[in-house]
Design a protein that fits this description.
About 35% of the residues lie in helices and about 30% in strands. It contains eleven helices and 14 strands. A hairpin with a 2-residue loop joins strand 9 and strand 10. The strands form three sheets. It has a six-stranded mixed β-sheet with strand order 6-7-8-3-9-10, sandwiched between helices. The chain is α/β, with parallel strands linked by helices. The chain has two domains: about 220 residues, 3-Layer(aba) Sandwich (Rossmann fold), CATH 3.40.50.300; about 80 residues, Alpha-Beta Plaits, CATH 3.30.70.100. The structure holds adenosine-5'-triphosphate (ATP). Adenosine-5'-triphosphate (ATP) binds next to strand 2 and helix 1. The site of adenosine-5'-triphosphate has 11 residues, from strand 2 and helix 1. One of its GO terms (molecular function) is ATP hydrolysis activity. Keywords: ATP-binding, Nucleotide-binding, Transport.
Length: about 325
Amino acid sequence: MSLLQVKGLRRDFGSLRAVDDVSFTLEAGSILGFIGPNGAGKSTTLRILATLDVPTTGEVLLDGHSLVDAPDKARPLIGYMPDRYGTYDDVTVFEFLDFFARAYGLKGTQRRERVESVMEFTGLTPLAQKLTTALSKGMRQRVALGRTLLHDPRLLLLDEPADGLDPRARIELRELLRALADQGKAVIISSHILTELAEICDTCAIIEQGRLLATGKVEDILQQGGGSAVAPELTVRLAAGAEGDAVWARAERLLLEQPRVVHVAREGEALRVRLELEPGTGPAQVDAAAAVLLTALVSAGLPVCSFSARERNLEDAFMTVTKGRVA
Ligand SMILES: Nc1ncnc2c1ncn2[C@@H]1O[C@H](COP(=O)(O)OP(=O)(O)OP(=O)(O)O)[C@@H](O)[C@H]1O
């Protein structure tokens, strides 16, 4: 049985249906990316999963306990990090975590050990005596994550945890979440930053206007709707040398004369080439089309120094699944 089972979840706010018939399951040890634009219903769904709200209809089972009928049994299993989390003035990292550990009912040595182990895991030990208000956003966010881990929950619900983090803090967050999944925790992370989710998640769910448009393994979603595993876009780099712009212009003209090429644009030191291929085209046909272009460029004496097809990414899949209706 899956750790989390969400069945036909619906949440109406007056006449607005914020969550509309959402169903999915999540296994222990896996990370689900919850993707959708602003207002899609991500936070509402996560709040219901955190037992902070109740669905209009539908059912959620966590380790067999109904979140609607027996929230008290499910709560100890849940760690929830909302999209806006506060810290208190004049409180150190240790005091902040210790306060919440008390709230979770931990006592004495057990409490101290738990706070220390959470600080160790999140890399906060050297900052234990720093005021939380003096921390960077990335570090404050680790404190918030640490707070959700104090009672060792089995399901982690993280609402836009990567929002506003710099690239380094994002990578570090990714590593922390992977380590938590490796410990057997199930993680749901919502975001509108698609590329980032692709790297971190095992499965993903795309939501728009309250409805799930696609769910499944990231690889399967990448294939969905687009028909091909590889986006028909190529990147060509030239060793243009002294001739410079003339070489780029020649390559651009030549590429535009080739069959299937619909668009060529210079981007810095590369040409991006878009192809038009029939729906259902597979990677082999994309490769064949690319080979024709490479042969044409080399035969014309153009100094190609790199030539690659761009992998279809989650952003492409999102645009296909939502039919480009949302940005
Ligand atoms: N308490 C509420 N009362 C009325 N409407 C609400 C309430 N909470 C959310 N909504 C509405 O429900 C819809 C879904 O909101 P939700 O916050 O779940 O979206 P989201 O995907 O998390 O977006 P964001 O990334 O902007 O937080 C929105 O139209 C929102 O205005």
